[in-house]
Description:
Layout: H1 10-17, H2 21-31, E1 37-38, E2 44-45, H3 48-62, H4 67-79, H5 101-113, H6 117-130, H7 133-153, H8 159-179, E3 188-194, H9 201-211, E4 216-224, H10 226-236, E5 240-244, H11 248-263, E6 268-271, H12 273-277, E7 288-289, H13 294-305, H14 319-342, H15 350-370, H16 380-389, H17 394-412, H18 417-432
Helix pairs in contact: 3-4, 4-6, 4-8, 5-6, 5-7, 7-8, 7-9, 8-9, 11-15, 14-15, 14-17, 15-16, 17-18
Amino acid sequence: MISTTPAFNLKVVLKETGIAADTLRAWERRYGLPMPQRSAGGHRLYSQRDIETIKWLIKRQAEGLSISRAVDLWNEQLVSGADPLAGPVPPGNLPAASANLESLRRDWIDACLNFSESNAEQTLNQAFSMFPVEAVCTEVLQKGLSEIGDRWYENRASVQQEHFASGLATRRLDALLSASPAPTRSQTVIVGCPSDEWHTFTPLLLALLIRRRGLNVLYLGANVPVSQFTDTVKNAKADLVVLVAQHLISAATLKHTALVLSSQKIPVGFGGRIFNLRPGLSDSISGYFLGTDLIGALEEIETMLNGQLKKREPKSISQAYATTHQAFVSKRTQIELTVRETLEPLPIALEDIETGIHFLGDNIMAALQLGDMSHVSAEMDWLKGLLGFHGISEDQLTSFMQAYSNAVDKNINGSGYLITEWLSGEAKKIRTQ
């Protein structure tokens, strides 16, 4: 067993490994490898394991890897439970030169669809040995999950396959974040999801990419109440909060969270799938829209931390929307009861009908809070997919929407015209498709 006792000074290490002092310091600063301890006088002290680690990295460079990829390979082996110094680099970690990110993504998707954890992990190990962490995470994991999600929507993949892949990808990101070097910059960024947002892959990936830029990042995860964001900002003296919403419902809670944080002079950046689907939606949110892709978001975060973005005021909603929102919230229970009573029988389980009613109501309420009923259109594919999966015809779907429209009109009369007009428009689109 290689000793981990700190016993050697810098001069001994340089002589043993042949590395330049400036290079070694750069590795320690940028990658956290090695991580020497300090003497009482503040001088670096290295162990025999530190020396062997340096030699291992130098050897990987001699084999053609960049230092960043060598460090990634080191971290990958540690995450998988292997000791890089226990033996030679496993052949499976050094793929053929013909392998590319697209083929690796296909292999990973196939392994996930076949519930083969070992093949999925081996594919990722190969990918990380050849390509930077950022590229693998975005091109293999993020795009792979997106494709599996598309297959689920098209009934070509099961929800179990989607959950299996998501679980594997999330665990890998957790491991990479835990294995990341210690922050080298003083600024702190908090990343998390607002209330009602449970999809954590994107914010977790963003947290990893932020950490790899040397920033201190606190990842709070899913469904975080606004009070926890404000408390954590104060306790951690954070410089920035980043909020991620994938759906319209969580975009509405993000709006509230961002408003509270901004009112307390806390800088807020935000993004997510729903803002890509509805470009104008970002105009109604306090803070700074980070753009449509992760790499661009990282650059926007850097700009925010440098204080180079001017504060902008969000677009306010009209009085008509405020009135309709208040009326809908007060009468929603009665509206949904009326829908159940008047809806024609459908060849679908009662719990799925309840899901559809609840989903539509949540999205209508969110759109009213955000000041534009057309925002719900971006989420209607989910409802159509749910009903279509059970063989619901277009006529039955339009009947469902008409029943909801009638229930709104019955219970809140003229105050619901924003909702009923939108429902009529969606029903017309379904009939003409």
